[in-house]
Amino acid sequence: MASSFASHYHLFFSILAFFISGLIFLFSRKTKSKRLNLPPGPPGWPVVGNLFQVACSGKPFFQYVEDLRPKYGPIFTLKMGTRTLIILTDAKLVHEALIERGPLFATRPRENPTRAIFSCNKFTVNAAVYGPVWRSLRRNMVQNMLSSSRIKEFRNVRESAMDKFIHRLRTEAEVNDGVVWVLKNARYAVFCILLTMCFGLEMDEETIIKMDQIMKSVLIVLDPRIDDFLPILSPFFSKQRKRVSQVRKQQVDFMVPLIEKRRKALQNPGSDSTAISFSYLDTLYDLNIEGRKSSPTDQELVTLCSEFLNGGTDTTATAVEWGIAQLIDNPNVQAKLYNEIKQTVGDRKVDEKDVEKMGYLQAIVKELLRKHPPTFFLLTHAVTEATTLGGYDIPTDTNVEIFSPAIGEDPRIWSNPEKFDPNRFVSGREEVDITGVTEVKMTPFGVGRRICPGLGLATVHLHLMIARMVQEFEWSAYPSDKNVDFSGKLEFTVVMKNTLRAKIKPRS
Ligand code: HEM
């Protein structure tokens, strides 16, 4: 009896064990088939992933990524709480994703709550998902403001801003022993140009400074917070959320009256002597947006104008700062540029039309953007549907991040990539199509569907500013016995860690 019980007992447990292992097998097969084959990456902790490793590393994020590159290669994953980042550092993969399979990789991931407020729920060119709203907004911006014929129409605005810029540098140098701040002055000059293009009104210095302060506060509150990655922590950030609402309110309260002022100037031509004939705002008041009946609201107008100003201000000024740093560090390059300017224009002021005859200036700007892309990451991309890249899965709602410096300094693409050498583009030794259509070799403006629509305008600004700066002044290091320190730090763009101060000597 006992043995019969034992054998029944045995049989029962054997069947149970068989049943359970069967279930485990089936379950594991099922979960395995569902498990994603994400690109490799550093092992992380449950729930938080690599978030605290990154946060506690003491390194800026771009440095953290740079340091992972030798180990994980062209494509790797970082888990940041609830967000998965897939980082691309290889030109061929970027070409495949953004050019060959462009539409698939052309959308943006979901926004964090702060960004959603400032973008009016993705109602901007840069944040809109790939679809009709994006198409309408981008087409309007490109065709009505950033096409080459439109850019030419704002020539006078640039000329007057450049004269003021040179005047500011001269006056600052006069009272500071010949020393000037580069980024601050360059930033102010570009900001003035974009403000006029955006609002079509000439503004006094007080308004410009106030607007700039608001823009800066916006960028500060837009800085990612830990609860963007771990929303469960958001109850601990109510103070920060309050600050976000305050800054948004300040921005709206300050900008709506300007939007109204321009509207009035358009309705009563000639009533405002500071109004110029055309502006970005004019294209927005009654803008038709695919799939929507109404034109943009005041809040949306504020958001679209801010995008226009933000897109082109820090980026361009940052490039000028690195550019001047390189001209100081390479006096022979500076001298050669000055010669080109003299030979091309003689004693008159450089005009933007001269630039097409100035191959060396163009080479300098290209080399500068290769070596110092103002933003190390493009804006975050996402896929419209789950796919694979480089043999790995790319699910929807992951952040696809493209790390520009890895491409611009890839020794498989560039000879002596670490050297600042504009000659590489002059001799025809090396060439680049900055739009990346044929081949991706550098990505300061991104490539593909989401390529920076301001590329043309930005290049006009960079050529003009650098040419005027070098035509008017000889630039040298300050203090004179110190080498330029080329380390960078992340603000909104990657600026020089030690903000550049330079000594200038008027040429005549
Ligand atoms: C040197 C100056 C500039 C640099 C380095 C720069 C760089 C970039 C980069 C890297 C992107 C992201 C591309 C991507 O996601 O793949 C971008 C997008 C964008 N930029 Fe620029 N930019 C500059 C100037 C400008 C200017 C002058 C404007 C307009 C006035 C502008 C407006 C935009 C907009 C609206 C987008 C979003 C495009 C989209 O998502 O479809 N940028 N820019």
From TrEMBL:
The chain crosses the membrane at residues 6-27. One of its GO terms (molecular function) is heme binding. InterPro entries: Cyt_P450, Cyt_P450_CS, Cyt_P450_E_grp-I, Cyt_P450_sf. It holds the Pfam family p450. Keywords: Heme, Iron, Membrane, Metal-binding, Monooxygenase, Oxidoreductase, Transmembrane, Transmembrane helix. Its cofactor is heme. Belongs to the cytochrome P450 family. The keyword RNA-binding does not apply. Heme binds at residue 452. It comes from Hevea brasiliensis. This is Cytochrome P450. CDD domains: CYP77_89. Signal peptide: none annotated.
